[in-house]
Each structure stands twice: as structure tokens, then as C-alpha cells.
Amino acid sequence: MVKILGIDFGERRVGLAVSIEGSGMALARETISYSTLPELINRIRKICQEDGIERFVIGFPLERDGSEGAAVKKVRAFAAEIKRHFSLPIEYEDERCTSTLASRAMREGGQHDRGMRGRIDQQAAQIILQSYLDRKYGELPQR
């Protein structure tokens, strides 16, 4: 299994998650708040070096009916920038409802809305990456 960086792209914040090598599991890593795309690319470059990233999985924000809306164009533009700066493969994973699922899970875990904003993005990235890992490599057996 390769080391993967899961990305939940947003215009002001980007949530990141990493795969745990050999486990088939995703771990929320961080949320990057950024002002410029070069600033974001530089932070992602540093993370790729630190974590030995070999592939990107980017959340693909399809509409509820499966069609492509305006958000997809922004993600494609971001992915084009990633491709320009990194020579790593990029794959997409359907991200419908990931922020809602992340928010719900955090509330159920006792966290409150006030401090959740940045953490929701990284939790959404974790859900995106875990969904990809489950689909690509199969779910791990339950113990």
C-alpha cells in the first residue's frame, strides 16, 4: 500500500488526512487555512516530504444527483495546480455529505460547533480517504 494524502479542498481551508502505512486506515492530519495558492502548495509540499506521500486522493464534490456543479470546476483547477507542482498520481473520491458526516460525528463525540470549524475539514478529508481505501483495498476484517 502506498502512502496517500487525502484532501478536502476549500477556497479558504483545506483538510488533510494521511493513510497509515500498511493498515488500510486514514488518519486526520490537519487543516490548512491559506490566503494564496502558492502558500497552500508550499505547505502541501512540506507535508509530502515529511510523510513520504506517494499519491493524492482529492474529494470530488458532486451534486446530490451525481452531476458536476461549480465546486467541481474549482477542484479540477486545484488538481491541475497539484499536477503542475508534483509528479504524483491523483485520484478523486466522491465527497458528497462528508462535511455533514464529519460534523455529526464530532458532535456525537461531545465537541461543540464553536471549535469545530477547522477540525471538520480534516475529518472530512479522513472520511474521503477512508472511503477511497475501503473501495480500493477492501474493508479490514472486524475483530
Task: Give a written overview of the molecule.
The chain is of the alpha/beta class and 143 residues long. The chain has one domain: Nucleotidyltransferase, domain 5. Helices cover 44% and strands 23% of the residues. It has four helices and five strands, in the order E-E-E-H-E-H-E-H-H. It has a five-stranded mixed β-sheet, with helices on both faces. Strand 1 and strand 2 form a beta hairpin. The longest helix is centred in the C-terminal third of the chain and has 21 residues. The radius of gyration is 15 Å and the shape is globular. The two termini are 21 Å apart.
CATH topology: Nucleotidyltransferase, domain 5
General shape: globular
Stretches where pLDDT is under 50 for at least 5 consecutive residues are none
Whole-number radius of gyration?
A: 15 Å
Largest sheet: 5 strands, mixed
The tally of strands reads 5
The secondary structure category is alpha/beta
* CATH top level assignment: Alpha Beta
So, the CATH homologous superfamily? YqgF/RNase H-like domain
Strand order of the largest sheet: 3-2-1-4-5
| Overall residue-averaged pLDDT value | 86
H/E topology pattern:
EEEHEHEHH
Distance N terminus to C terminus?
21 Å
Strand content: 15-25%
Helix content bin: 40-55%
CATH architecture: 2-Layer Sandwich
